[in-house]
Every structure is written in C-alpha cells, then in structure tokens.
Automatic annotation (TrEMBL), chain A:
Organism (species): Cercophora newfieldiana
Ranges for region Disordered: 183-218
Domain JmjC, chain residue ranges per copy: 330-503
Name of the protein in question: JmjC domain-containing protein
Source organism phylogeny: Eukaryota, Fungi, Dikarya, Ascomycota, Pezizomycotina
InterPro entries: Cupin_8, JmjC_dom
Superkingdom of the organism of origin: Eukaryota
Pfam family, one: Cupin_8
From TrEMBL, chain B:
Any one Gene Ontology cellular component term annotated for this protein: cytoplasm
SUPFAM superfamilies: RCC1/BLIP-II
Pfam families membership: RCC1_2 (PF13540)
Protein name: Regulator of chromosome condensation 1/beta-lactamase-inhibitor protein II
Provenance organism: Cercophora newfieldiana
GO MF terms, alphabetically ordered: guanyl-nucleotide exchange factor activity
Length: 503, 332
C-alpha cells in the first residue's frame, strides 16, 4: 500500500488518469456522432478521426471501460483488466504498423495521436489496476513500474507524444507525479541557478567542488586511441554576437569552422549538475528507468548496424561503465533527449549565437531548410570509439562538448563532388553521407566484414588529397560547423555532446 | 458448409448473427470455432480489418463486425468483385476499372483506377483476375487466354523485397543503362512490373495470389506454393520462421501439395490437397487457432478442428483466420 507521505502525488495522478480517459471517451463519441450525422466528411475533423470509425470506436470503448472499472465499488476481475490491456496493445500495434507503412514525414498525425492516447489509457490501467506502489518487498512492483515508464517513453520516442489536449504535456506530468510518489523525500526539483563565476581551474577540479554528489565517481577518461590533429581549426575565446555575425558573413565562400572555448564552461551540466557523473544522470532518468534510443554497431552505414530502445541504466551499465569491453559500440546519437527529459534541458543553455542570421548554403540553395522556430537540440552520448560517418547537415551547427573528448574532421562544401556522396539506397535518400570512411582510409578502424562495397584504391588516393581541417574537442569547447560542411566525428573517451542546429 | 474462425474479434468480426450493440467487450477466439453454417454452400469469405463479409447460397450476404459507414456500399458488390479492389495501409487504394464501374463506390481519390497505372496502349488491366494488397503495395494476377499468367507487383521502394523482382539501382535512374546485353527493362518500384521468377514455373501458371503485412504468396496450377517478402518486417510481425526474402521461395511442408493459402499481417495459413491445415507466425490474438498460451510458432504447425467434414478452403484477415468446411450434409 502507498504510504501517507506520497498520497498527494498518487491522488493527483489518479485524477489525471481519470480526466484523460473522460476526455478520450468524449472525443471519440464526438467523432462517431459527427460521422453518423453528416454525409460529407467534416474537413475540421481533428484528432484521431482519420484513423477511421472502427479504431475510434475501439479506443472510446476502452476509455469507457476504464472509467467504469475505476468507478465500480469492487476491484475489477483480472480477466477484465487483461482484456482491457490486450485491446490497448491491439490499438498500439495497429497504429505502430502505420509508422512503417508511411515515410515518417508523410505519416498522418492521427496515427501518432492514436498511439499516444492508447499509451495514456494503458498507463492509467496499469497504474490503477496492476500497480500497488513502489514498496512491494518481492520486487514485483518494480516490473510494473518499469512497464509503466516504458509505455510512456514509447509514446514520447516513437510517436512524438502527439495530441493537443493531452500529448507530451500529459505524459510529462504523469512521469513527474509518478516519480514524486516513488521518492516522497526527494528534494524539490526546482533547480538552483547556474554558477556565473568564471572558470578559474581546470574542469575536472571544478567538478569536484560541485555542490552535489561530490564523492560519486566520474566517467572514465581512458582513451584507447588518439588520432593526430594535422590541420588544426582556429580556436578563439567567445566572440560578441556582432563579431560572430561578422565572422559568418566575412567570406563570399561562406564561413569556416571555428572553435569557441569556454562558451559552455559555466553551464550547469559542467558545474553544479555534472553530466560527467553517472549518479547524476541516473537521478535525472527516474533512477535509470527511462528508455533511450541506442544505435548499435560501428557506423550507421554498416549493414550490421541496428537501433534499440534501452532503459538508461542498462545502457550505462552494459556499454559505458562496464569494466569488460562490450561486444558492440552503443551510441545514444542524434536524439532529442531534452524534449524527452526536460529535467536535463535545464542543465544547458541555448547559445546566443543561435539567434544570429547565418548565411545560406554556400553552394547548394536547395539544401536550405525552412526557418526553424527554435534551435533543434540533439544529444550524443556514448563510450570511446563511437563514429558518426562523414556527412553533412542542412543547418548551421554548434557542437558543444560536455563530457570527454571527441575528434572531428571537416571538409568544405566546395569539395562535395570529391567526397562522392551516396545516392538513394533502398528508397532512403543517403546523399548527405559520403562513400568514404575516414577511419578506414586512415587505418584507425578495421573495415567491417559485412561491408558490401569498398572504394577502389585509386579513389581513396584522390580522397586523401581533399583538403580538410580537424580538431579534438575538450569538455567546455564549442565547435561551430557552418551549413554544408562535411564532418566525421569519433568519440575518443566516454563522451557527451550537445548539438544545436539553427538557420 | 461450415465456416470456422479463430483470432482477433475486437469488433465481433468473427461472430455472425450477433446483435451489434452489446455492453460486453468481445474477446478474441483462440481456437478454431464454428461461426457459420449454410446447408447450400458458402461462395466467398472476405475478411476486412473490422468486419467480415460472407456470401452464402441460402442467406445471401452475411456480415459480422463493424462496417465503417464509407464501406457500406461495398457490401452490395457481388462475390467476384472482391478480386478487383484492394487497399494498402499507406493510404493507397486501387480498383480494377476494367471490371468494376467508375462509380461513386470508388471515388478518386482515394481510389486509383488500375488502368491509370499501365501504359494506355495495353489491355493488361482487363486480363487481371485478382488484385490484392500488402501493407505498402499491391500485386495483380494477369491470366491470358492461353492459360499462361503473369504476376505484377508495385509499391514502396523501401520494402522492395515485397516486389519479388529487380528494380533499377538508384544510380541508373538518371542515366541510360550502361550494360549492353541487358534486354529486360527493370521497372521502378511504384509502377507495376512483372515478377519474372513466377512467369515460367515447373508446375504451371499461377492460380491464386495472397498477401498480408509484408509477405506475398502465389499458388501454382501444380499445387506448389511460393512465398516472398520483406524479411525484417515479416520477422517483426511474427513470421521470423518463414525466412522470406526478395527471392520467390518454394515452400515445402513434408510431402504435401498445397491446395489453398491465406496470408495475414503476421501469419500464414496453408491447406494441403489432403485437407490438412498448417499455420506459421504470430498467434498474438489466437489467429493460428493454437489457444491462448501460444504466442506464435516459427515452423509449420498442424492444426485440427472438431468437425467431421473436409476443410476445402482458407482465408485470413490481418489477425484472424477462417477455414471453410464441407460437412457431412454436403457430402450426401
């Protein structure tokens, strides 16, 4: 049974579940009623209407069933709960199959909302009919708790938690209340403002003086391999906004890469909320229960490469902090982690440079994208040896190194033809990725056995002649990658970076 | 005749003659159970995601489950018409306008006339005897007056293995073909192209196509079964054991000849000429008829039913299966 201290969060969560079910029921009823009343399809039909009458009815029925079971005096029969959960899983599987049937950018949003609403009802049913609180002595409740968190994370990661009435807001609220109900004694989540004092000491010492978790271990700084830097990128202390704008506008051929030191060194992630400590990251991921998408394999162009969703704790223990080498490299790469975990978002700042007006693509106007409303943030977290193959992005990029060191090599967009971009492969556009593998050309990596094509030796010699610049990013460094610049990135130690795309 | 069914039943699509409105949430049917009987015979079983249409000799058209309002006119079509329209799960729908009228039944969009997918100077659409869909595309069986057949496929290039044929490599699309000996012109994924591997088989022309999920199947006049599809998506749906690829693969089940085949989203049902039923794939909703405990099977598994009659046909919805049984009354 739940104890007294956390009953407030439990009551709030129960009310949140009930009101979501009531909303879903009334939305489904409205869609079905409209469907029966008028012959012409209402162009304003929203939500899950486009998933069709049968699925709308099925979801609405499960919402009704949930409300009925919650409001009846007796606790529900296990068979009744089981059928409710199975029907919700049926809806999840049906909506998820559409995620593959369509190109993601063409997927009608109704399928993402149907998935999200089924997740909300499934979470509600698990919480109210299967879960008896975090304190069960036999550990069985841990399994249900994991299942509830996984259910919500799937909606965040796979379906983008679509839906205006509930969606991401509902899921974040449910996760906060659930975590509060599990840790009634935890300190309030309000974050202390980041330290503004300038960096006086090397980052490692600074982290040791951080106010929390002073004695918990930090990630290993071991580097199995360190490539030589042969054409170093210019390094500078932070520029003013107008100086940065002038730097970007200074050349007709477009700006060059630039390292800005100490731009991020006062951010909470490098000071008071140290991402270099596994214990801190676990505390921000529901004790490591939150699910994260992981890429497995050497590089995304290899055939053996795959993606998996893992609890953060398993990812850390199996692939990052394990003393024995893991069979595969695992990389939390290009994931909008800060949308999924807003608590970590508070540990970083958006650099002011992201509010400048950068120049267009220097050679290919078709690469320019519609203007982003806000910079697009991605997290890149992995062990030593992660690789992002030579590729180019359609945005200007600030790559901020938070933990560990990464090697980056960049080629100018003016040399694009010499980098032999790939074409369409299996219906997927791969033109932003080079056919050349920097690590293999340089002899830093063994070519994978499964590799289906290798470049002829003559081509590789021509590739070696293409000019480039390179660097090793240290914690606190920020690399400006102008739009269109090809980049190859290799994690040298355990490494955590954040990229900011803007235009 | 009797109709047995097993599997997903969220809309009561396996229960004929039941009132639509009940407060009970209908549960799945985990073992093959008799759901219908017609002393004079059953002509056709047409499973849709949320409903089933059955054409019977005595009672005419019977339906079970929830028919979306937009689909109601389809229930007026005669039995043979169901071979001439198909809906994929990616928003694309095709109907064979050479067999079905350009009527309000098939508004465009979302329906595409089959003839618009072929060059104007060909009569191939009128030779198409069966048009079916899988999740991201279509297949058509074309039967010519001399008895020979061709199978055409088209669909999403990302799942090209479902096409069972070669498509032009991406680099070829812009330039001319560089190999001089090439006489076969490869057709792009989204345009109907011939599955040449099925054109000249040792056991004769194709008599039936079936598809579901990311798996397609073809039966020959000589009772052989060929299956192909996208291995990764098929495995994800529960059909790992089938080991499908873009190569059409003959299916061997002991020494049996194959009489009929049905393909669901993640399962396949096969009827042998001796009346045995074999199933493979996902049993998530009881669609294999193997009960509630079995989640699925990765090898061909025999199922039996409690009937003295002979099983003469099989059909499948996305997550359900049907067996058509000629019972002892029919035999007399």
């Amino acid at each position: 049974m739940r104890n007294m201290a956390d009953s407030d969060s439990c009551d709030k969560l129960e009310r949140l579940c009930l009101s979501a079910a009531e909303q879903i029921r009334s939305e489904c009823d409205a869609i079905l009623k409209q469907n029966n009343d008028s012959d012409s399809k209402n162009p304003q039909a929203t939500g899950i209407a486009d998933c069709g009458e049968p699925l709308t009815q099925l979801l609405g029925r499960q919402a009704s069933q949930f409300i009925f079971l919650l409001q009846s005096r007796d606790s529900p029969e296990p068979e009744t709960v089981s059928l409710l959960l199975r029907r919700l899983d049926d809806i999840l599987s049906e909506s998820y199959s559409h995620f593959y049937a369509y190109l993601f950018k063409e997927l009608p949003v109704c399928w993402r909302q149907l998935y999200t609403d089924a997740v909300i009802l499934k979470f509600a049913a698990l919480y109210l009919f299967s879960y008896a609180g975090p304190a069960a002595s036999d550990g069985s409740q841990d399994t249900t708790l994991d299942e509830m968190i996984k259910t919500l994370d799937l909606a965040l990661i796979l379906a983008g938690a679509a839906g205006e009435q509930r969606g991401r807001r509902w899921i974040n609220r449910a996760l906060d209340l659930l975590e509060a109900s599990c840790n009634p004694t935890e300190l309030p989540r309000e974050d202390t403002p980041p330290s503004k004092r300038p960096r006086l000491s090397p980052p490692t010492q600074e982290m040791q003086t951080a106010p929390i978790q002073q004695d918990s271990p930090v990630f290993s700084t071991h580097e199995p391999f360190t490539p030589p830097v042969t054409h170093p990128i210019r390094r500078t202390t932070p520029l003013s906004l107008s100086d940065f704008q002038s730097y970007m506008d200074s050349s007709l051929h477009g700006p060059s890469p630039l390292i800005i030191t100490s731009l991020a060194s006062t951010w909470p992630c490098l000071t008071t909320h140290p991402w270099s400590r596994p214990s801190y990251l676990l505390s921000r991921t529901f004790s490591g229960r939150r699910l994260v998408p992981i890429e497995l394999g050497r590089s995304y162009v290899d055939t053996a490469w795959s993606q998996r969703l893992l609890p953060f704790r398993s990812f850390l223990q199996t692939y990052i902090t394990s003393p024995s080498p893991s069979p595969q490299t695992a990389y939390l790469a290009q994931h909008q982690l800060f949308t999924q975990l807003p608590a970590l978002r508070n540990d970083i700042l958006i650099p002011d440079y992201c509010y400048t007006a950068p120049p267009p693509h220097p050679t290919d106007p078709s690469a320019d994208q519609p203007e982003l409303d806000t910079p697009q943030l991605n997290a890149w977290f992995g062990p030593a040896g992660t690789i992002t193959p030579l590729h180019t992005d359609p945005y200007h990029n600030l790559l901020v190194q938070v933990v560990g060191r990464k090697y980056v090599r960049l080629y100018s967009p003016h040399d694009t033809p010499r980098l032999k971009p790939r074409g369409r492969e299996g219906g997927v556009e791969m033109g932003n990725t080079s056919t050349f593998d920097v690590g293999i050309v340089e002899g830093w990596d063994e070519p994978p056995a499964s590799r289906d094509e290798t470049s002829p030796a003559a081509d590789i010699e021509l590739f070696r002649d293409v000019p480039y610049v390179d660097c090793i990013l240290e914690a606190g460094d920020t690399l400006y990658i102008p739009i269109g610049w090809w980049h190859y990135v290799k994690g040298l130690s355990v490494s955590f970076s954040v990229s900011f795309w803007w235009n | 005749m009797e109709l047995y069914a097993a599997g997903f039943n969220a809309w009561g699509q396996l229960q004929f003659g039941k009132d639509e409105q009940t407060n009970e949430e209908p549960d799945d049917i985990p073992t093959f159970t008799r759901v219908l009987r017609d002393d004079n015979g059953i002509d056709g079983i047409h499973p849709f995601p949320s409903y089933t249409i059955v054409h019977t000799k005595t009672s005419g058209v019977l339906t079970a489950g929830l028919i979306p309002k937009a689909d109601l006119p389809l229930t007026t079509l005669p039995h043979p018409s169901y071979s001439h329209f198909a809906r994929a799960s990616n928003g694309l729908s095709v109907f064979n306008d050479t067999h079905l009228p350009l009527s309000p039944l098939f508004p465009q969009p979302p329906w595409t006339p089959l003839s618009s997918l072929f060059p104007a100077n060909t009569n191939i659409p009128s030779t198409v005897t069966q048009l079916i869909s899988y999740t991201t595309g279509f297949a058509a069986l074309s039967t010519f007056p001399d008895g020979s057949t061709q199978v055409y496929t088209w669909g999403d290039e990302r799942y090209a293995a479902c096409l069972g044929r070669d498509i032009p490599a991406s680099s070829d699309t812009n330039g001319a073909a560089d190999s001089q000996g090439e006489t076969e012109v490869e057709v792009v994924a989204t345009t109907p192209g011939i599955v040449t591997d099925l054109s000249d088989l040792p056991t004769g022309p194709i008599t039936k196509l079936a598809a579901g999920g990311y798996v397609l199947a073809a039966l020959t006049a000589g009772k052989d079964l060929y299956i192909w599809g996208h291995g990764g998506r098929a495995a994800a749906a529960g059909l790992r054991g089938l080991g499908v690829s873009g190569e059409t693969m003959p299916i061997v089940i002991e020494d049996y000849d194959i009489e009929d085949v049905a393909v669901g989203e993640g399962h396949v049902v096969v009827l042998t000429t001796s009346g045995e039923v074999f199933v493979i794939g996902s049993n998530s909703n009881g669609q294999l008829g193997l009960g509630q405990e079995v989640k699925g099977v990765e090898s061909w598994t025999r199922v039996s039913i409690k009937s003295e009659g002979d099983i003469v046909g099989v059909a499948a919805g996305p997550k359900c299966s049907f067996l058509l049984v000629r019972d002892t009354v029919d035999k007399k």
